[in-house]
Predict the 3D structure of the following.
Amino acid sequence: MLFSDDMETDRGWQVEHEATSGRWQRAEPRGTWLGAIPVQPDEDASPTGRLAFVTGNAGTMPRDDDVDAGTTRLVSPLLDASSFVSLELRYARWLYREGPATAPEDASGLIVEVSDDGGESWVLVEVAAEDVGGWIEVHRDLDPLVVPAERLRLRVSAVDLTRDYDRIVEAALDEVVIEGFELVCD
Ligand SMILES: [Ca+2]
Ligand SMILES: [Ca+2]
Ligand SMILES: [Ca+2]
C-alpha cells in the first residue's frame, strides 16, 4: 500500500484555488438539493468516516458555495513510489454538474490527473462532465500513465468556466487508495 486516505485526518493535501467560490475544503459535507436531486453530498464515502473534501461547504441552497468562474485544485502530498513496480488508483468522487454541455470555452466538470515528477507535468486519469450527483468509485491502472517514481502526486480539479449563467458545479473526493506490487529486497 503506497497511500490510503479516508480524509478523516490531514494528510497534507494542498489547495490551489483560482475560482471565486467553491474552494476545496476537508469537512463534514453539508448536503444541498435541487428538488429531490442531491447537489452536494450530505455524507462522506467512508464506511465509518465523517469527513471528505468538498468544493465549498457554506450555505444550504444548491447555488451556495459551488465552483464559480475558475478552477479549484486539490493536490496530494508527494508520494515515494520508487519501491513499486506496478500501481493502481482507487477513489470515490462526486460530481454534480448542472445543465447540458456547452461551448468548449465554457468547460466545467471534474478532472483527475497524476504526475510522476512532483507536479511538473500531469497525465490525465479521468474527465467527468455529465454526472448528476452520487458517490462513484473509480478504479484505474496507473501503469500506462506514469512510472512508479519518487515524486508521485495526484491532482483533482473542479472547474466551472461557464460565463452565460450560474451553472452549479459541486465535487467531492474521499477514500483515495494507491497500491500495487512492491519490490521487496532481502
Ligand atoms: Ca471520509
Ligand atoms: Ca459547495
Ligand atoms: Ca458555478
About this structure: The chain has a mean pLDDT of 94. The domain at 3-182 is CATH 2.60.120.200 (Jelly Rolls). The radius of gyration is 16 Å. The pocket of calcium ion (ligand 1) is lined by residues 6-8, 44, 46, 49, 51-52, 174 (CB under 6 Å).
